[in-house]
Amino acid sequence: MNLDKDNIINYSPSCERNQQVILEHLQPYIPSSAKILEIGSYSGQHAIHFCHNQPDLTWQASDQFQYIQGLEQNFRLANLANLLDPIEINVAVAEHWPKTVFDVIYSANTLHIMSWQHVEKMFENISACIKANTLVCIYGPFKYNAQYTSSSNEQFQQWLLARDPLSGIRDFEAVQLLAEKAGLTLLKDINMPANNQLLIWQYKG
Ligand SMILES: C[S@@+](CC[C@H](N)C(=O)[O-])C[C@H]1O[C@@H](n2cnc3c(N)ncnc32)[C@H](O)[C@@H]1O
């Protein structure tokens, strides 16, 4: 969708770069007419790109309170019928999670930004919104066996920690434990460009 980037609040160049490849890898898994909840939508570029390219989807974007107004403005520009008004969700606040279930929960580049305590809360609170076969799809950088997948990710970690000591690239194994505790089964761990992963779990119910 050709929106002028100068008009997009919180425009993210990396979203622009990775949105198509994420969509291509996710599409085979997303059921038709799926209802999707996104955590940490920020500028909403992924939401707009996915909804534009797959009109049968219904997309519920969300983020912390301070990003909601920007999201609303960006979505007005996009003017897509399948893109719902964004809602406030801080993953750590159980009351913020919708009292409805979704086919897919999607979140990109969030686990290394939020604190580990919030990552734990996210996997705890996700239970309100999942049913049998719901997919939980997380995109971003991870460590495996305590090793970075690239030297650029190691440098990124230093940058993250200097900015916020509670943030940081997460260990895949620790996240996998949280997912298992939430009843999720790992379906796929896909190597993505720029040393990122796309992790897809399913709730078996
Ligand atoms: C780097 S941005 C990623 C934005 C977008 N998803 C992307 O891929 O570019 C990190 C996002 O995580 C969100 N985030 C951080 N902590 C959060 C929390 N506790 N609850 C919900 N979202 C959170 C931020 O508000 C921000 O939108």
Poorly predicted sequence stretches spanning 5 or more consecutive residues:
none
How much β-strand is present in the residues? 15-25%
Q: How many domain units?
A: 1
What general outline do the C-alpha atoms trace?
globular
Please summarize the sheet with the most strands.
6 strands, mixed
List cofactors, ions and other ligands. Answer: S-adenosylmethionine
CATH architecture: 3-Layer(aba) Sandwich
Report on the structure:
The chain has 205 residues and is an alpha/beta fold. It has a single domain, classed as Vaccinia Virus protein VP39 (Rossmann fold). It has helices spanning 13-26, 45-53, 68-78, 116-125, 151-163, 172-181; strands spanning 35-39, 58-60, 62-63, 87-88, 104-108, 135-140, 142-143, 170-171, 184-192, 196-203. It has a six-stranded mixed β-sheet, with helices on both faces. It has a two-stranded parallel sheet with strand order 3-4. Helix 1 (13-26) crosses helix 2 (45-53) and helix 4 runs parallel beside helix 6. The longest helix has 14 residues, at 13-26. It is globular. The N and C termini lie far apart (36 Å). It binds S-adenosylmethionine.
Key structural traits:
single chain, 205 residues, alpha/beta, Rossmann fold, six-stranded mixed β-sheet, two-stranded parallel ribbon, 6 helices, 10 strands, 21% strand, binds S-adenosylmethionine
What's this entry about, in short?
By secondary structure, this protein is of the alpha/beta class.
How is the secondary structure organized here?
Elements: H1 13-26, E1 35-39, H2 45-53, E2 58-60, E3 62-63, H3 68-78, E4 87-88, E5 104-108, H4 116-125, E6 135-140, E7 142-143, H5 151-163, E8 170-171, H6 172-181, E9 184-192, E10 196-203
Parallel strand pairs: 1-2, 1-5, 3-4, 5-6, 7-8
Antiparallel strand pairs: 6-10, 9-10
